[in-house]
């Protein structure tokens, strides 16, 4: 496998392919020329759209131009319980320098596929074997009529949106463009987002969204506490080896998807789902930017390691709790109805026997042949 799927508990998972797999990847991997680098829109730039989520350049056609999109170890996946395995060696995620000063200017842009915020290289993850330095963060979401646009789902439950904080292995590679096609090149933090309570941290960039309504537009925004975009608990998460969820779909990502979700208000969700366009301001027919998520990919025999014990697996996340409660209530109602029906039928039969004078007479024999 180009990226190792199952890992042995008790040791840090290696991501080194076998010789045969390395040779296959070398044969198939396109050279990262300047033109390919420009196509890594969601990672490093705000150039024009070379692909879309639907239509002639949509997901069904990605493999025609980006072969890895039709390959193995792709993301996102449905994180099902049967894929999960508790790994006691998984440490809490530790992020450094995520609280940015207002004087530090960030670039917020619309690249035609998502909104993206550039991040300073002082931000990094310190709890992995290598230092993974932040590059950018971006979002995937649904639409006004369908608040279900997360890429990863947990036991088939899709969230309203998802945030990805992209980091590259700065111990081995000088920048994200060099690291993007390496098996140990990227580490992405995935945060599932639900519609619920108002989230004040999101306002740090949503209040500037009218300045990036169209593809290619960008604005400068003050720095803020990026850590507040993440869940409060960083010690409970799902971990697996996967890929970029956009072309060229390199299988180069160490995924960390947090168990806990964050919330945004309905109005904040609508700001993402309705205020943006995937086309430029000059286009006569603006194309709305919504439902920008990739379809689920095959698990390909991968194991999803979890940092929390099996008996702590979230029933509410899997949807099993509701199903079990509903099923139990229906089953109990059926049993009660059946018992009541049998009691009424027995009572009716007994009353009919009494009215007909049915009973034992002297000389009759019981089932054992004795007289009564």
From TrEMBL:
User: Where are the membrane-spanning stretches?
Assistant: 320-343
Question: Which SUPFAM superfamilies does this chain map to?
Answer: Carbonic anhydrase (SSF51069)
The GO cellular component terms are: plasma membrane
What is the residue range of the signal peptide feature? Answer: none
**What InterPro entries does the entry give?**
CA_dom (IPR001148), CA_dom_sf (IPR036398), Carbonic_anhydrase_a-class (IPR023561)
Protein name, please?
carbonic anhydrase
**Basic residues bias (residue ranges):** 17-28
Q: Which organism is it from?
A: Betta splendens (Siamese fighting fish)
* Keywords linked to the UniProt accession: Glycoprotein, Lyase, Membrane, Metal-binding, Transmembrane, Transmembrane helix, Zinc
């Amino acid at each position: 496998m180009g990226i190792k799927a199952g890992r042995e508990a008790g040791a840090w998972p290696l991501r080194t392919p076998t010789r045969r797999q390395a040779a296959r990847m070398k044969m198939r991997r396109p050279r990262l020329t300047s033109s390919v680098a420009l196509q890594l829109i969601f990672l490093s730039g705000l150039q024009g759209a070379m692909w879309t989520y639907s239509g002639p350049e949509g997901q069904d056609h990605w493999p025609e131009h980006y072969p890895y999109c039709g390959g193995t170890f792709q993301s996102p996946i449905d994180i099902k319980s049967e894929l999960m395995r508790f790994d006691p060696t998984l440490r809490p995620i530790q992020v450094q320098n995520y609280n940015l000063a207002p004087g530090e200017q960030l670039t917020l842009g619309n690249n035609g596929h998502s909104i993206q915020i550039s991040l300073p290289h002082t931000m990094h993850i310190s709890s992995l074997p290598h230092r993974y330095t932040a590059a950018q963060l971006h979002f995937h979401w649904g639409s006004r009529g369908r608040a279900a646009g997360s890429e990863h789902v947990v036991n088939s439950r899709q969230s309203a949106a998802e945030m990805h904080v992209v980091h590259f292995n700065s111990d081995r590679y000088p920048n994200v463009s060099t690291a993007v096609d390496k098996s140990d090149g990227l580490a992405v933090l995935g945060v599932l987002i639900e519609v619920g309570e108002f989230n004040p941290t999101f306002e740090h960039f949503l209040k500037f969204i009218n300045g990036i309504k169209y593809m290619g537009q960008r604005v400068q925004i003050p720095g803020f506490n990026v850590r507040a975009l993440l869940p409060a608990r960083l010690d409970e998460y799902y971990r697996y080896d996967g890929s970029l969820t956009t072309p060229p779909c390199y299988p180069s990502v160490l995924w960390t998807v947090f168990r806990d979700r964050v919330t945004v208000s309905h109005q904040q969700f609508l700001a993402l789902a309705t205020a943006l366009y995937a086309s430029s301001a000059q286009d006569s027919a603006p194309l709305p930017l919504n439902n920008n998520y990739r379809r689920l990919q095959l698990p390909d025999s991968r194991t999803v390691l979890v940092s929390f014990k099996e008996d702590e697996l979230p029933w509410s996340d899997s949807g099993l709790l509701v199903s079990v409660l509903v099923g139990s209530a229906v089953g109990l109602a059926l049993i009660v109805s059946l018992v009541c029906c049998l009691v009424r039928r027995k009572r009716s039969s007994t009353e009919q026997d009494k009215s007909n004078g049915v009973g034992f007479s002297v000389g009759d024999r019981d089932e054992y042949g004795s007289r009564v």
